[in-house]
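Q: How do we represent a protein-ligand complex in a form that can be generated token by token?
A: Start from the inputs.
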Amino acid sequence: MIVERLWPDSRLRNYHYLVVCEETGDALAIDPLDADLMLRSARARGWNITQILNTHHHLDHTAGNGAVKAATGASILAHAGAAATIGGVDRGLAQGDVIRVGRTIELECLDTPGHTMSHVCLFAHAEQPALFSGDTLFNAGAGNCHQGGDPEVLYETFSEKLARLPDSTRVYAGHEYLLNNLGFTLDREPLNQVASQLRAALAGRAATDMPVTTLAEEKQFNTFFRLQNPAIIAGLRARFPDLPETPTPREVFVKLRALRNQW
Ligand SMILES: [Zn+2]
Ligand SMILES: [Zn+2]
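Then emit the structure tokens for the protein with zinc ion bound:
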């Protein structure tokens, strides 16, 4: 499986991806925004875009659908619940569906509501597993919930779906927010060595050169996976007096998401 991460240099710092079968050159285009960039990249490598996948309906993940489809005839796949909003969807997806790309790639569809209520992530069962996480899980962060989402539901997705994936899973997110998110982590946990060392190492680095993190790493520096951490809880209780002394992970997650909105 080849994963090509493309950087359209958009205001919202989107990433999009080509997932390519090495045997056939068939490619899945994930979240096309800059259609020209996707088409040029595929053409230059001799790849053939046969399918388009939108993780959710937001325009910065779908705007390139029409032009990519017109140029390639690719079919469009999206969450069944987002299909009508997106328009032109050929295949509506649900939890457990399998997307095949070429002869060698099988991607499992995870129903991952929270950022929007109809959002899919794709999980690649491979030697090094991969997760295409859209706006659900960012490197060192979590998607916001103020455009049709719900933080309680996003918590369920994190705890029931994402946290259970293998630690070696590489996280291919829909936006480049890593450095900024590490700032949020260090604001919660000033003594988090892994976060401070990574932030120092990445300072000034271009978005095109940012690392792809693993879930094992996320559990070390992504606040939204560290819901039992005493420093995080103490800091939240200082800001949210209604948070109990021994809060549930769900309560911590929801307060963190609220705090991140103003941070
Ligand atoms: Zn979004
Ligand atoms: Zn987005």
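The two ends are 37 Å apart (CA to CA). The mean pLDDT is 97.
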